[in-house]
């Protein structure tokens, strides 16, 4: 049986430590595991590290990769900065939106994929580029991008 | 640190090395505008209002943070600085909902004052006005984020001074907002309603939940018998709130309140004295049970319970220590319960027609009066709470000239005061009042401090301690305390309360009695007091309080003749049946 | 460029550990001295003299000094650090270890941007490898010196490339820059004396130790020291990472990258300078075109106003929001650029307040983000955008 968000948070506090400097590592792991950070997890982390839950919420809200709202099993991040734009990221985005049937910032109804745009991914020499979870995909075309997102379970 | 030479606007000055440019300029009599800076708080350096030019630097420097160095050449109003200042101010105004006439801080707003000082008549960065984003957060504290300039003074207050930390910057970039955990209402998170954030907000982004309209309605209803009680700290704050120098102005305050149309003007000091007697006997009773009878279920240290911000704090953070709290209600709530029973009888008035209004230096009192259990009179014991600021606005609306109004006296039955009662308004005051009475009860003698002034518990130190040793010869029935040393502690500001409670929770605090006030300075620095606040202002108010104490005829709570009458005619005895019904309460776990 | 002058990415590479072996035979003070004499300036963009930073940290009082590697490569168009880590992670680790020895630190952290998660295994593997070779961990190369390196991820915030924001992030907080003073060399991570340096800076250190300060200086063009990596992308035939002597001209780089029919070049990322072909003789060096490492090339057909809009969108998204000029200024610059793009601005006096705003952002923002974000507005409006009413206040 999968641990509750609170149990998960507690186990990650045990793993990383309860010092305040461990907060982002703990949050990142919860985020990675559940796709987002539920409020119960925030409460546990705040208690364990000795800061207020408002403080932890403030930290999460600062970083683009952390979310307090549920997201899909897969997160697709398309680069929207200039080098990728110049090599056709716009068409790639349109194709991906069409394939998934959602807009930027949205999640497919079956909870499979969340689509986001992101700042420069540092793959400018192989643009357009996107991250699917932890994996980079480069030299995208509308078709290759469609194929990648269609194959996500 | 040695002195160094710096040049400010062409003039050479000698200042201590390491002071900030802001401090050096203050010494030199040069004013630099600030917004995020506050003497009670850590340095944020985010508003950028205090930009100055330092020769040789590639960027401008912020005066509040930058230390002076030998031979530094500073310009505080060069062309570059003036343009920078005006631009920063315009940017702040452009993102601020400028609706001054409708704002609670109209004419007492730091942003407005700076705009006026810098003659900002055109704002090239103005886009469309921001909509009001008015949120009824809670009984005591309300917020309008469209006025927020993100200086974070409220955030630093809540974190550093109060260790509550329920408001924080949320989000990033121009979408940053000051908000709570999951953006919930303040009454849904562990906000203690202390209102210290309001006191330090430079604009009208934070303000108290107003009850002025309801009070006017009650006053204008011929059917109602409206009585007013005034807290100790209000009498040293009301003059400030009306633009006058800090001073005690009790007689004028009474006259002004009567002028508003209240049927009776009475004094919370009366029930402050009552609280001392009830709480004093409660403490003695606990000492007897714990020390003499060895009853482990009786908890020491006993802790005061008159500060509702403190009560909410302990209910959230240290619910396991609730048994340590005195069961006494606060003076405000004792007053309300008696106003609709004892007073109604004395005045021959139908208690259902009595409206009890309290004037408080406090915003948490608005939360306190709404607590479900505060209805022992059979009605809401206290109907409305107005802050010192709200009272000032009513006095102004009524056109009452506070400066020239004569002095009047409180009405009878619940209007008599003692010095012990009035010092409730300062940190250490409840403790001192309690000692003046409890010592005399158990020894039969006056407490051996010069002029009854128990100096060790006075002053602005965050946590104060004192020890009072009993003589060998005690009054009859109190022999068990002969030679004992009573240890007490006093804390003000919730960060200090937290430090003390951590020790109590760990079993490391061997005190018998602790006074906690949620607000720095005690009630005189309360969330409902005039704005601005600073260490100097709070010291002045404290001076006024202790002057009032020395000038009053009665200095000890048990000498209050109206309180004596109350016991003789109504309550019978301290901790008696009537007392328990009306004057004592219970608390709620909020963890 | 002659092969022998490509050190960071050249064919001829030193053995992992050779520099560390030599360094551990020197005194820590001599190691710092060598780096100082090499005149190497920070390779992340700010260009602070590295040796001076190490000197200050070494002299600072306080225990548990820290060596932090800024691998938060977020400046648009920059990918040189990614390539360095992909190909020569050991060099970064060795450089950090030498730095630790020099300043008296035993603890290093690599702050790796969240957008490079696939580099975590690369770094972990390199760390394991170095440990096996006794180049990391306790009793390094049989000496008393010990040094540990940990990899920690960011969570998606460009501003965390600023050193005090980076430290705040490592401390588990919002990545908001701190007031300075105190400076990180005196009070940084958890209040400890801390040095923060870029990946490329640490990667250069083994070369400096092995070749010596004078040799390193000689690698630069003219009075400049060492080599510099440039990530070239955009309208070029050969995008990728190039290594050139510091002080080379932009024209030389464009030639190598096979850039043709160039309208504009953005040097140093969105926060850098936008230059025209007339300026191709300018040098890539601190003091001329600050060479953070990003070089983006825009061909003749590109709409530079759209490019500007893209840059301003980036800054609005990435501003931390703490200080007034950056939080409000970037927003307003984006608003006016959008209005110009929509044809709603005739120009002239209307634009003067925005050029003034750009200046105040440069002078009054709390950190480098706000201080440089308006550069592209000034450059692109100045050099590439025509308006019927002209541009007053440029």
Write the layout of secondary structure elements.
The complex is a heterotrimer of chains A (153), B (591) and C (394).
Chain A: H1 5-16, H2 23-34, H3 39-49, H4 53-62, E1 74-79, H5 82-86, H6 89-100, E2 113-118, E3 130-132, E4 135-137, H7 142-150
Parallel strand pairs in A: 1-2
Antiparallel strand pairs in A: 1-3, 3-4
Helix pairs in contact in A: 1-2, 1-3, 2-3, 3-4, 6-7
Chain B: E1 3-8, E2 11-16, H1 21-27, E3 51-54, E4 61-62, E5 73-75, H2 79-94, H3 110-117, E6 134-135, E7 141-144, H4 153-161, E8 168-170, E9 177-179, H5 196-200, E10 206-208, H6 212-219, E11 225-230, H7 238-241, H8 250-260, E12 264-267, H9 268-292, E13 302-303, H10 308-317, H11 331-347, E14 354-360, H12 364-369, E15 384-387, H13 388-397, H14 419-422, H15 429-443, E16 463-469, E17 485-492, H16 494-505, E18 513-517, H17 535-551, H18 561-571, H19 577-582
Parallel strand pairs in B: 1-5, 11-12, 11-14, 13-18, 14-15, 17-18
Antiparallel strand pairs in B: 1-2, 3-4, 3-5, 6-7, 7-10, 8-9, 16-17
Helix pairs in contact in B: 9-11, 9-15
Chain C: H1 18-25, H2 28-37, H3 50-59, E1 65-71, H4 80-103, E2 105-112, H5 120-132, E3 148-153, H6 163-170, E4 194-198, H7 199-211, H8 213-218, E5 227-234, E6 240-245, H9 250-256, E7 262-267, E8 273-275, E9 294-299, H10 304-318, H11 324-341, H12 352-364, H13 368-372, H14 375-384
Parallel strand pairs in C: 1-2, 1-4, 2-3, 5-9
Antiparallel strand pairs in C: 5-6, 7-8, 7-9
Helix pairs in contact in C: 1-4, 1-7, 2-3, 2-4, 4-5, 4-7, 10-11, 10-14, 11-12
